[in-house]
Amino acid sequence: MKKQKSFAFLATVLALGTALAGCGQQQSSDSGSNSGSNSGSLQKLVIASVGPLSGQYSDYGSTAKAGAEYALKQRQEDFKKLGFDVQLLAQDDQADPKQGVAVAQMLISNPDVIGVVGHVTTGASITASAQYEQEKLVMVSPSSTGANLTEEGKQVVHRICARDDMQGSKAAIYAKNQLGVKSAYIVHDKQAYGQGLADEVKKQFEKDGVQVVGYEGITAGEKDYSAVINQIIAAKPEMIYFGGYYSDAGVLIKQLREKGFKGIVMGGDGYDSADLVKIAGADNANNVVFTSVVGDIGATEEGKKWISEFEQATGNKVGIFTSFGYDSMNVLLHGLEEAIKANNGQKPTREQVLEHVHKIKDFQGQFVKVGFDDKGDNEYASVYVYKYENGQKVYVGEAQ
């Protein structure tokens, strides 16, 4: 009897909830039909910014988020004139593939979310993209460089940065032709980004006749890499290439120098953080070279002006992915604006936004030109070279 009463009560609650939900949907629909600059009512649209905002890779996520947020603030009034209140929703995936899935599922369940700037790291991007693909929720990554991301045939995936196969091969060519390297020991962190980059360097070295005297993986987050360092010292390479992030690179470099290695240490854009110098030590970071998918934004007067305006407006310093977070958001906003226009000023579907982002062929961002190929890769992406000198990051030039 008690069960029957409970079921009856539950049925009543569910019926009431359904009725209220129906009213809510009707109000939303009415609001949509009257939206526009003359009605005074705005439809809410949400763009998510996703990356690591906590943990050892937070420098990447926080800088990309800051750039994306700044870009959106500059365009919000334009969208209000079209009848839409476009808001940012920042999410922390901790650079963890599992957390990337959890965040993606949460975003998919929110009907206001119309696109994603992110994810920032390759591993999280790959797992999250499988979720977005189911709902045609477009993503534009500022920094996920792993080649596999766009090789899996997902329609939703886009990035404005160069791929690891491009970054890795250009790094190896630069090391051989510009640094004169004849032998190298290759190490990676066993993760999608680091190992993918290391594999491409190894492939190019072998193609060009640079001797690869060793190839080993280490476990990210460990504090003692003496086992692999002893192997490296015994092999006597001219250069060590480590595919991984700054936190592990800093520890590895410090311990290598303490063991007497004075040669070149090279890596990818995962090295681009002042924390690498703090961890390794300024003197130890000398002779460390890295490639990046992001050029020197302060190299021009226009870039310097943008940096000054950004820092005054936000109170943040420009970091590794600030510029590409900014351009990724503007790419997504361009696609959204085109979708709204094509839909006669009405709220577009996720699939319509995806369609118009994917169509982008010659969008001139603030720092990079963007044109997506069928896979979602940027046809205009480039690779650049930097080095650490006396504790400072120094721009060398575009990798040729």
Automatic annotation (TrEMBL):
Q: Which keywords describe this protein according to UniProt? A: Amino-acid transport, Signal, Transport
Listed SUPFAM superfamilies? Periplasmic binding protein-like I
Ranges where the Leucine-binding protein domain occurs:
47-391
Report the leader peptide range. Answer: 1-21
Does the entry feature the keyword Transport, yes or no? Answer: yes
A GO BP entry: amino acid transport
- Lineage, top-rank taxon, reads Bacteria
Homology family: Belongs to the leucine-binding protein family.
Protein name as it appears in the record: Branched chain amino acid ABC transporter substrate-binding protein
Species of origin: Brevibacillus aydinogluensis
